[in-house]
Design goal:
The protein has 2 domains: about 15-145, HUPs (Rossmann fold); about 160-265, Rossmann fold (3-Layer(aba) Sandwich), CATH 3.40.50.620. With about 300 residues, the protein is of the alpha/beta class. Helix 3 crosses helix 4 and helix 7 runs parallel beside helix 9 (about 285-295). It has helices at about 25-40, 65-80, 100-110, 130-140, 170-185, 215-235, 250-260, 275-280, 285-295, and strands spanning about 15-20, 40-50, 55, 60, 90-95, 115, 145, 160-165, 190-195, 245-250, 265-270, 300-304. The protein has 9 helices and 12 strands. Strand 9, helix 6 (about 215-235) and strand 10 (about 245-250) form a beta-alpha-beta unit.
């Protein structure tokens, strides 16, 4: 039997959950409180506002004062629903850039995990956390758990199956080591996935052009990838449960989301590269961002 669902990382003592006070991020707050309760950790409920004032009921009111009031209203709501039961927590209101302020709180409070809820919108329609979720999980050093718009639950589910997509680069060994720790902590099974582009490229490598028939080429490529995945497992710490392996000839984000659905994964765990604030905030087609927007389960990102 799987252990508490919320055991997705080890040594959690301080969890920060960012909220834009929308229903989507309130669900993420409940998720984070579940984590905090399971680990007897402290939960920091964070909201950041700009320094600009606005008019409310005919009076000029600073945005942070109103945000503080709204955050206390959320706290009262969570008290009524029992979500704060047995959870040490602290409300944090900051003025300024959300990502910068989150990094400051992570540093000041020694945060172990950040939890985000995002609307997953793109372009001009992005809304607060939806526009900067990728910027956050690529910028901060600690793991980030993101709950996207297709992940329809309010509380943390049981973690029995974890999908681990890997590009098999050098950094993937460290990603895999952390994935093993998390899988074993949960008594969960790990599914390793590697996606291969679904068409030959301009300058193909030996993995594609090993024969004259596309079926033969795919079969050979699949065999090579499976050997690498098994080698990755053999080189790391022992898993409590035998892993499964998946090789898909598809674009990475599509392969990851479809595999998560097919294998009924409770969590997607992926390594992400660090990017500049501009790059992370303005590349909505990046794989990690697409996965967060489309996945029906939570996505745990580990920055390399």
């Amino acid at each position: 039997m799987a252990t508490s669902a919320t055991e997705i990382a080890t040594g959690l003592q301080r969890i920060l959950v960012a909220t834009d006070l929308s229903q989507t991020s309130t669900n993420a707050v409940r998720f984070a409180l579940d984590l905090a309760r399971a680990y007897h950790a402290k939960c920091y409920i964070f909201h950041s506002v700009s320094s600009l004032g606005f008019t409310l009921a005919g009076a000029e009111v600073l945005a942070d004062e109103v945000a503080s009031r709204d955050l206390h209203d959320l706290e009262a709501q969570l008290e009524r629903t029992g979500d704060l039961h047995d959870v040490a927590h602290q409300l944090v209101v900051r003025q300024g850039d959300v990502c910068h302020e989150i990094e400051a709180v992570i540093h000041d409070e020694h945060i172990d995990l950040v939890v985000l809820g995002t609307h997953g919108r793109t372009g001009l329609g992005r809304f607060v956390l939806g526009s900067i979720a990728e910027q956050i999980f690529r910028a901060v050093a600690c793991p980030v758990l993101t709950i996207g718009p297709e992940a329809h639950y309010q509380h943390a589910p049981k973690v029995r199956r974890i999908l681990f997509p890997t590009d098999l680069c050098a950094a993937s060994r460290n990603d895999f080591a952390r994935a093993v720790t998390i899988a074993n902590r949960n008594d969960a099974q790990l599914i390793l996935l590697h996606s291969v582009m679904p068409f030959p490229v301009a300058e193909p490598g030996p993995g594609w052009y090993v024969g004259t028939d596309i079926t033969e080429r795919r079969s050979s490529a699949r065999t090579q990838v499976l050997d690498k995945l098994r080698g990755l497992v053999a080189s790391g710490a022992k898993l409590l449960h035998a892993p499964e392996y998946a090789v898909e000839f598809q674009y990475p984000a599509e392969a990851i989301c479809e595999a998560a659905d097919a294998y009924r994964a409770d969590l997607i765990l992926m390594g992400v590269r660090r990017a500049s604030a501009f790059r992370a905030g303005h590349l909505p087609w990046a794989t990690a961002h697409e996965v967060v927007c489309r996945a029906e389960c939570a996505v745990l990102t580990l920055r390399r």
